[in-house]
Amino acid sequence: MATNNCGNSNCGCTNTYTVTAPCPPSCPEVFNSSCIVYTGTDILCNSTTVISRYDYLDTIITKLVNYICSVQAPVTVVTGSTYIDTAAVIVGNTTTYTISLDMPAVQAYFSPIIAQTVAANVTEGQGIDIAVNPVSNVITISHEDTSSVASPLSSNNSGNTFIQDINFTFDTFGHVTGASVVPGTVVPPVDATLTDAGAASGHVSLVNDGVGPALAVKGIVGGTGITVTTTGTDVTITGSGLGKYSAAVTLPGAGQVTITHNLNSLAVVVSVTENGVLPNNALLQGPDYVYTVETLNSIKISDASFGGGDILVTVIG
Fold it and tell me: Cis before residue 22, ω within 30 degrees of 0?
């Protein structure tokens, strides 16, 4: 206990236990805070020790003031969401939040909805394709591929063969749906024109006279009834078709006549008609005449019931 002894010069918490000025009002008892000791257990705020055992009262008051001033008021934390962004700026004990839309997230949400809505209202026409990418939500409009031509289109020719025709087919959009090539062959000019007139069997030979180069075919092609053969010095053209021989003769009544031809064949067909009489009636083999093949080049015709006269004999063999 301290006594109010402010009138003395020795005032304070000393051996005299007096209080220095300014002195409190006159009280039954006056306590000096620096002389009062806390003897209880430590006082904690959560896990922080605020007041320790054996602290003096003046120290306890200082700790309480400092603790109150250092502790911030309860803070409400503002957090964003899927489509909301927050940005915090802290100045001293003050936190300022800026709230904004997360535009990439909003676009990512609405892009497929917009793409599907647009695609649902855009229909494909003839020759047009529409595709929606489910990842990028991009709508692609393209021209339909209606071409069916294999690639590459080629014709590998050589020698006298060339591309004669190239044929294309198109659809209504102008796409090529078919293509083909037609090869042609260069035919060298023919050096000679040979015709089998049926006059006779036999051949014509072109023989190297020893002055010029060796003979070649030179583009000569044998047609019907013509055979072309060659050697180192000869080009031989042979009539290989049927030959024809005609002759006008007089068949004596109840007699016979021999016709000599140049067909050189036993395989012949004989036709006899009246010559110089219109209409030119054909005589019948057997009733009107008979014939006998005597040699390769001769035929004997005998009168049967014709009675003789001018006849036209045609021999084919």
Answer: yes
Tokens of 80: 């964003």
Does the predicted TM-score (pTM) go above 0.70?
no
Side chain identity, residue 121? N
Q: Which domain covers residue 155, as residue numbers?
A: 147-184
Does residue 262 lie in a domain region?
A: yes
178 vs 175: CA distance, rounded Å: 9
User: Using one digit for the tens of pLDDT, what is the confidence trace for 178-213?
Assistant: 888 888 887 655 444 444 444 444 454 455 555 555
- The b/e string for 200-213 (b: 16+ C-beta within 10 A; e otherwise) is ebeeeebeeeeeee
In a domain, 123, yes or no: yes
Cβ–Cβ < 8 Å for 215, 235: yes
Residue 50 backbone phi and psi in degrees, to 5: -100, -50
Q: Could you count the other beta carbons within 10 Å of the beta carbon of residue 28?
A: 6
Distance separating alpha carbons of residues 3 and 15, to the nearest angstrom:
12
Q: What is the pLDDT of residues 84-98, one digit of tens each?
A: 898 988 887 778 889
Check residue 7 and report its DSSP letter. T
Q: In what order do the strands lie in the sheet with 309-316?
A: 244-251, 309-316, 269-274
Residue-wise pLDDT for 36-57, tens only, equals 889 989 998 888 888 999 999 9
The answer to whether the beta carbons of residues 217 and 230 sit under 8 Å apart is: yes
Helix (H) or strand (E) holding 57: helix 57-70
Dump the DSSP string for 150-202: -S-------TTEEEEEEEEEE-TTS-EEEEEEEEEEPPPPPS------SS-SE
Interior CA angle at 307 toward 306 and 310, to 5°?
80
Classify strands 226-230 and 202-207 as parallel, antiparallel or unpaired.
unpaired
Same domain, 255 and 297: yes
